[in-house]
Amino acid sequence: MDWLKDITIEDMPTPDMEMVAHVCGLEIAVLLMRSFAGAQLNIPKLWFKAVVDRKIVEEFDGKNINRLTMRYGVSRAYVYKVLQEKRRARRVGDQQRTTGSWDGNGSSILKGGR
Asked: What is the CATH number of the domain that holds 58?
C-alpha cells in the first residue's frame, strides 16, 4: 500500500478523522480507519473514572471541593456523589464485618435474615 504515504489531512473522509489526524497524526488516523472501518467508537468524557473517583476520595479534605472540580473536570454534584457512594460502600463493608454477611437490606444472611 505505497499510496498511503501520499495521504494528507485534507484527504481524511470525515471531520472527525481530520481531527484525529491533527491530534494523533496521519499514521494513527489511517491505522484506526483500517482497524475499525465501519465501527462507531465512543470516547468517554471521563476517561479513567475509577482513577478520578479514587483520587477525589483520597484528596477530599472537606474544604477543597472547588479545587477537585477544577483538577478533575467534574461538577460539585459529581464529587459529592462519589463521596456519598464511598461512604455507603464503607457502611456496607462495616455491616458485613460485624454481622458476617449482609444482603443489602439490613438482613444478615448468616443469621437467617429478618
From this structure: 1.10.10.60
Cβ atoms of 82 and 57 within 8 Å: the answer is yes
Q: Tens of pLDDT along 6-32?
A: 899 999 999 999 999 999 999 999 999
55 & 92 share domain? yes
Does residue 90 lie within any of the structural domains? yes
- Count other Cβ atoms within 10 Å, centred on residue 69: 16
Instruction: Please give the angle made by the CA atoms of 68, 70 and 73, to the nearest 5 degrees.
Output: 95
Q: Quick one: 105 exposed, middle or buried, by C-beta within 10 A (0-12, 13-18, 19+)? A: exposed
What pTM, to 2 d.p., does this model score?
0.52
* Contact criterion met (CB below 8 Å) for 79 and 56: yes
User: Do 25 and 64 reside in the same domain of the chain?
Assistant: no
